[in-house]
Write a structure and sequence with these properties.
The chain is mainly α. It is about 60% helix and about 5% strand.
Length: about 500
């Protein structure tokens, strides 16, 4: 099942199974509508599936859906932002029968592509149980993108780049990917685009078709995900071009398959831009007040640390942070990866890596300062993840002629990541089963998930270990002659 260009379908399918297991467990452990803004996105998906692409006018916009689906807006009010309250306070999910009724959604002006796909199950199951099916479709898309990233990394012959995918896929990435929110596929597509793009630009000769297809599909999914997503595609594309250099960039652009994918991406970008500008999808509203420039700068800057933590693990509606140890351990894993990648780093790549790190900090501040008077300080860490996931991936390929990364050290890093995934999962599960500060809730759950909490926790142990073992043991391709000896092994 392996190809001469290093692509292995076996690696893809095994990765897909491992990731689907992790995302499925997250989807079962998270109560309905406990993913950020999930009620709004679920209603938007149900509306788009019924042909209501823009929804009825107003702020928020409205859709007409079955009464049980319209009741989603009442499901989370008792426990959201109250981490000590378990999720059993939410009303039952057997909604009333009757004709379709109007429901308001704050996601009404979002681009419809993601919702047209994930909303299909609501046409078959018209009660709130359809949420799990919608989550399943979204999670399958994210799992496929992340599995393709692992496979593209392995195809380069770089075990360090494979580890970089593991560092990029933080607990927050998996949590978002398990729910109904376009942030999930946006981030998963960014991981795949960064990884496959790096494999393309740091090679020589004609591009690998599977890797090019991964990069092309990931770029299209990313550009169509959220109103701001084309901005991230542009930044990632610029970064990859700077890494490639002029000669390799021209070599790639002259390839007909590359030209075809650039044409598809250009068309997708134009459609997205037409939608965003046509319906005003980037317009923000509510929450602002008069502020001086200094007040806006200070207000955004002091939130930097919180935004960085949110990219690792800050679950629910930003009301359930992972323990401090998870954030510290993940940061140390990133430092180790950066240290390994920077040994003998090429100056251009080292400069780009530093620029990326600064961008992760400064881009949110710049965007927030520009709009704080209108909408307040709204930026969340997940919004920056499409850019931030590039840091461990670029670090992994920074050196031109690196020494082999010590396998025991990589094993230690991946073991730490497995523990972090498990601790984050159990923390979020306990928050919903018994409330934060009331124990783990594995045997005395107040809120009962679809499977017993203890079963979910045991499954999380096995899935986290399997994911890290996969990243450590996945066969990496022997580098073909045309691949530049720039990728760590």
């Amino acid at each position: 099942m392996s190809r001469a260009d290093g692509w292995s379908w076996r690696t893809f399918w095994v990765s897909l199974v491992a990731l689907s297991s992790l995302l499925g467990l997250w989807g079962l452990a998270t109560p309905p509508f406990a993913v950020p803004d999930e009620p709004a996105h679920f209603l938007k998906a149900a509306g788009v599936a019924r042909g209501q692409v823009t929804g009825l006018p107003g702020l928020p916009t409205a859709v007409e859906v079955p009464p049980a689906l319209a009741a989603t807006r009442f499901q989370t009010g008792c426990f959201v932002f109250r981490p000590d309250v378990p999720a059993d306070c939410a009303p039952g999910y057997d909604g009333p029968d009757g004709p379709e009724t109007e429901a308001r959604t704050q996601a009404g002006r979002y681009p419809p592509g993601y919702y047209a796909l994930v909303g299909l199950p609501t046409l078959v199951v018209t009660d709130l149980g359809s949420l799990y099916a919608v989550r399943g479709v979204s999670a399958a898309l994210c799992a496929a993108l992340l599995a393709a990233a692992v496979t593209a990394a392995a195809a380069t012959g770089s075990r360090l780049l494979v580890t970089g995918v593991g560092v990029a896929a933080t607990p927050m990435v998996l949590f978002l990917s398990s729910g109904v929110n376009p942030s999930g596929p946006e981030v998963a597509a960014a991981v795949a685009l960064w990884t496959a793009g790096l494999a393309l630009v740091l090679a020589s000769g004609p591009p690998s078709r599977p890797v090019l297809t991964t990069a092309g599909l990931a770029a299209v999914v990313l550009v169509l995900s959220r109103p701001i997503s084309p901005f991230w595609v542009a930044l990632i594309g610029l970064s990859l071009l700077l890494l490639a250099g002029g000669r390799r960039g021209l070599e790639l652009v002259r390839q007909r398959p590359v030209q075809a994918w650039l044409g598809v991406l250009g068309l997708a970008g134009l459609l997205q831009a037409a939608w965003v500008l046509g319906v005003g999808a980037l317009e923000l509203y509510g929450g602002g007040r008069p502020l001086t420039l200094g007040e806006r700068l200070e207000g955004s800057l002091v939130r930097t640390d919180e935004r960085l933590q949110q990219m690792v693990g800050w679950f629910g509606w930003l009301d359930t942070p992972a323990p401090v140890g998870v954030h510290v351990a993940w940061a140390l894993a990133l430092v180790v990866l950066v240290g390994l990648g920077l040994r003998g780093a090429v100056r251009r790549r080292a400069v780009l890596l530093l620029t990326l790190v600064l961008g992760v900090v400064l881009v949110p501040i710049a965007l927030e300062v520009a709009s704080a008077e209108q909408v307040g300080f709204y930026w969340q860490g997940r919004y920056t993840l499409p850019l931030a996931v590039g840091v461990p991936l670029v670090a992994a390929v920074a050196a031109r002629r690196p020494r082999p990364a010590p396998v025991p050290l990589l094993a230690g890093v991946l073991a730490v990541l497995a523990v972090c995934h498990l601790v984050g999962f159990v923390t979020a599960l306990g928050r919903y089963t018994v409330g934060t500060g009331n124990g783990l809730g594995l045997v005395d759950a107040v809120w009962s998930p679809p499977l017993p909490a203890l079963v979910l926790a045991v499954g999380a142990v096995l899935a986290a270990l399997a994911w890290s073992a996969l990243l450590l043991l996945v066969p990496v391709a022997e580098q073909p002659a045309r691949v530049e000896q720039a990728l760590p092994v």
